[in-house]
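ok trying this again, last paste got cut off
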Amino acid sequence: MNNTGGAYTPPPEVYQAGTATYARLFRESASLNKDRTALIQDDRSITYAVLDDRSNRMANILLENGLSRGDRVGLLTRNCIEFVEVELAAAKIGVISVNLNWRQTPEELAHCVGLTGPNYIVCGEEFVAPMKEAGWATDLTIGKYYEAALTAANSDAPSAYVEGEDGLCILFTSGTTGMPKGALISHRAMVSRTLIFATETGAPKDDTFIAWSPLFHMGSNDFTLATLLRGGQIVIIDGYDANKMIDVIEEYAVHYVTVVPGMIEDFITH
């Protein structure tokens, strides 16, 4: 009971004490591994502490633009560090990341954006025009504008109420039997996928995952998010490149590599 005689309402942090959201577990992973490398892309690399800070800043940008729990942020870009930052930022405030497929036609893109109704759109520079053709404006472009926005943003950890069954991201089917269909993945589902990944592959906690397939697809998205919860590092490659993948395998400890039928023979040959 509170002092006015009504029912006691605990503060949000008490409500969430027993809730294993992806965002909460990532914060713990970032705290435990703050000096370890989280993401590598070409000659760029950032630690868990930097990734936590940058995703905090992006989360506060979303909050300042009026987004709140249950809203959606559209994300259209090729594989890059910023993709992961935006997805983590959304997770921290209960916003759903709509991971759009840059291979789609303007008609398909318009369908997927219209289906999910994002309140804010982050886009790679090369996809601003296709997004405009699909009938949607971009709110933040990755590159100098993105970096300037992050530099100016509040770096404090955002305060938001998030539950385990809240949506984490929306992935799309290929659309072979019609227009692509969105699949909503919850925080709890992603935590479960992390446990399954660890069990099925036996990958060590500090494993290196090679994210070469599109991050808008579960093949890279799932294992990237899972690796971040376990304290490993992700090397981001923009598409299949056997030589780059082999360089990573030679330089780092890599326990698990995703391959698909169309690349197996070529990869073995290399």
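PB: full thing came through this time. Residues 19 and 43 are 37 Å apart (CA to CA).
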